[in-house]
Amino acid sequence: MRAHFGLLLALLVCTPAFAEFVLIPEGSTVEPGGVLSITLLVQNDSSTEELHVDLPARLVLRTRGVAAAPDIVLSPGISEPKQANVAAGGFLRFHYAGRLPDGLLGNLVLEPIGLDSAPLGISVTKSEDAKPEAMEPLPANGGQPEPAPSDAAKAEAAVSAAGPSDRDAARFVTAFSPYDPNYIVAGWNGPTNVKFQISLKFRLFNPDTQTPFLEKLYIAYSQTSIWQVGESSAPFYDSSYRPSVFFLDEDISQWPFRDRSRLGFQTGFEHESNGKDGAASRSINTAFVRPILTFPFKQGRFISIAPKIY
Question: Could you read off the pLDDT of 233-264 as tens digits, one per residue?
């Protein structure tokens, strides 16, 4: 019994070394077409084992919600190593940089492709004074397991700024995105009416889940209402509520024409109801399949074809 307890305690204490990757922007804003510089923070979660890491030859970031935007490719600095050893409970920093595609503007969410890391948020704005940031190489000892004391203090601040609670909050916020069109219109033919639609989807699992299928599962909620603001009591004439659950792959990697177009695929189940019961009730349940074919053009323009088969 004592031997079994000792073995259990050893298994609990001696956890295998595991690398955690955190992407940290080296500037709060970037100009359109400018250089995006990123610090890749590699942490060793093990308290007992040194970790050997093969560093990515490049970082590929995809802009969420902009179907036609080309991928952003970041390359390592000139002096960056291809491999590194991270001490138990330690961390190392590595610098990557690359140019943003023309036409990207606003607050963007960038998802790393092929790297287990939380999405990255940046702001792309035009500024007369801002200049593209140059790629900053690491010091000569950048590949050593232990950073210098001054670097350690900076890295500690970076880890604190992107700690577990902040990363979880960022993942939760970036899991929301628009689904069907969101709009509000007004018109009149006698009384004044306002029609609006609210539609959001929520990714159920984080992008770094060990089962790739799960990270493409979503739930969504859409509501369309007609509001008679011209009447004395401003009643809602009609409303439709549409919760849904579905699988969505926005870019099928096996698509043979990826250099000229992007193919997505969606399938799921949708319920639509007016929220009433009895004789006034109206509802329908729909199973659907929707291929999504997108043809990108210059400056972020695109044409998308998405027939819904149900």
Answer: 888 889 999 999 999 988 887 778 877 888 98
